[in-house]
Write a structure and sequence with these properties.
500 residues; alpha/beta; Leucine Aminopeptidase, subunit E, domain 1; Aminopeptidase; 2 domains; 8-stranded mixed β-sheet; 7-stranded mixed β-sheet; 34% helix; elongated
């Protein structure tokens, strides 16, 4: 299983002279375009070489302040300059994160067979903005390492974030950015790995490997243990595959922590739809149906590596949904862990069944808050598009906690309701409840189903990331084609906000 390695990242108070590429911002200041982060030495050298300042060169070659727009300019003495639109001059950390990502994606194409050294000069001073620049640059440098007999070339040799601040907080911001970006890229790698390489057993072992060297306890329940334990959702969904299901539990309990959060992720390593088989065009990208599990596992690793003072219990429910003679059927009645019976409506609505097992198990750890993450429904993509994830919660207090964390992290979530009467759509004549209702409000019905398995009185939030978890289109900002690592940054920010 291949993995991406982050390029070395450093913080400097001046632009290094050996940088091959310098990334600058282009912002609107009261209706006037200005270059942000331009080193005086660079401007002098450009003026001497080309007879006019870099700002004039940028304008003449079509540079714009539109966020994310990039133009590559000739620098001086062999350096190249990338100008990235920032929008308004008063930037947010997310604007800087996006600009740095766009700059690094462009820089990666400039070296040919040679890896380039990149300096990110975006006039970042506040720790949050410095972190945004560092995260964006690292995430923008990501590329999936192909499954190939040939070694993939390295495009970025190193990244230097230039800031006038040399304070300890600035250096801590860069270290945090490195840890969080590494977790996002780990989740991306897992999502991008082909399903014949990443299946429940190998995914569980990869999770175990990711926990090595950290204060994380790891427990893996295999198919036999799941059957003995009564995990009827996982055993049913995974029953049609030759690759048996797994439930991975990571536990992080730092000394002195008082708040306990449980993270639950959907880990369907490939989803054919089971006996309700998907059409071919809808199946090709279904290796990404484990993005929720990837997010919670990677976020838990980052939380432990950062040493955050909050207890975290993480569950990743892993199965491969395949049609065969041993596959579960529509109309089957399954017994979820804890005893609740479910009438299966559609074998292509498998994610909620494995999540039900994991939610009940997570509830027995008595957390203060449960957050589940899943590529759960196509309905949420219809509602919110491909760049915004859905959020449904037990109450506004839980929703606000997650939305605040998402805003801090720079990820887009939108709260949807679970209206009164939604649960009634799941009434069954042959079991405690059905696994689905009609087509109307499918994302809301799925959330209502999951909420059934959350202990009463426990705060709960459900993140349906089916839209932004996998980008089938061209890359943009710091987002690559393929797995995106959606929700990792939000979960880390949430844990940071819950520290005692």
């Amino acid at each position: 299983m291949t993995s991406f390695t982050l390029p070395p990242l450093t913080l400097a108070t001046s632009c290094p002279s050996d940088a091959d590429v310098v990334v600058l911002g282009f912002a609107d200041s009261a209706g006037r375009a200005v270059l942000v982060g331009l080193p005086k030495d660079l401007d002098k050298r450009v003026t001497k070489q080309f007879g006019r300042p870099l700002l004039d060169v940028a304008r003449s070659l079509g540079a714009t302040t539109n966020p994310g727009a990039t133009v590559t300019l000739p620098g001086a003495d062999g350096q190249r300059v990338i100008v990235v639109g920032l929008g308004e001059i008063d930037v947010t950390p997310e604007q800087v994160r996006r600009a740095a990502g766009s700059g690094l994606r462009t820089a990666a194409k400039l070296g040919g067979d040679r890896a380039v050294k990149v300096a990110v000069c975006l006039d970042a001073v506040e720790p949050e903005v410095i972190r945004g620049a560092a995260e964006g640059a690292l995430l923008g440098s990501y590329s999936f390492v192909k499954v190939s007999g040939e070694q993939s070339p390295v495009a970025i040799a190193s990244i230097t974030v230039v800031s006038s601040s040399g304070k300890p907080e600035a250096r801590r911001a860069v270290e945090t950015a490195r840890t969080v970006a590494a977790a996002v890229c780990l989740a991306r790698d897992w999502v991008n790995t082909p399903a014949n390489v990443l299946y429940p057993e190998t995914f569980a072992e990869a999770a175990r490997g990711a926990a090595k060297g950290l204060r994380l306890d790891v427990e893996v329940l295999d198919d036999k243990a799941l059957e003995r334990g009564g995990y009827g959702g996982l055993t049913a969904v995974g029953g049609g595959s030759s690759h048996g299901p797994r439930l991975v539990r990571l536990s992080y309990a730092p000394r002195g922590a008082k708040t306990h959060i449980a993270l639950v992720g959907k880990g369907i390593t490939f989803d054919t739809g089971g006996l309700n088989i998907k059409p071919g065009e809808g199946m090709f990208t279904m290796k990404n149906d484990m993005a929720g599990a990837a997010a919670v596992l990677a976020a838990t690793r980052a939380i432990a590596e950062l040493g955050l003072k909050v207890n975290v219990t993480c569950y990743a429910a892993m199965a491969e949904n395949m049609p065969s003679g041993t596959a579960y059927r529509p109309s089957d009645v399954l017994t979820i862990f804890g005893g609740t019976t479910v009438e299966n409506v559609n074998s292509d609505a498998e994610g909620r069944l494995v999540m039900a097992d994991a939610l009940v198990r997570a509830g027995r750890d008595n957390p203060d808050l449960i957050v589940d993450v899943a590529t759960l429904t196509g309905a949420v993509v219809v509602a919110l598009g491909e760049r915004v994830a859905g959020l449904m919660a037990s109450d506004d207090a839980a929703a606000d906690r997650v939305l605040d964390a998402a805003e801090t992290a720079g990820e887009a979530f939108w709260q949807l309701p679970i209206p009164d009467g939604t649960r009634a759509k799941l009434d069954s004549k042959v079991a405690d409840l059905r696994s689905g209702g009609n087509r109307a409000g499918g994302a809301l019905t799925a959330a209502a189903f999951l909420q059934t398995f959350v202990p009463e009185g426990v705060l709960w939030a459900h993140l349906d990331i089916a839209g932004p978890a996998f980008n089938e289109d061209a890359p943009y900002d710091y987002v690559p084609t393929g797995g995106t690592g959606t929700a990792v940054r939000t979960l880390v920010a949430l844990a940071q906000s819950l520290q005692d």
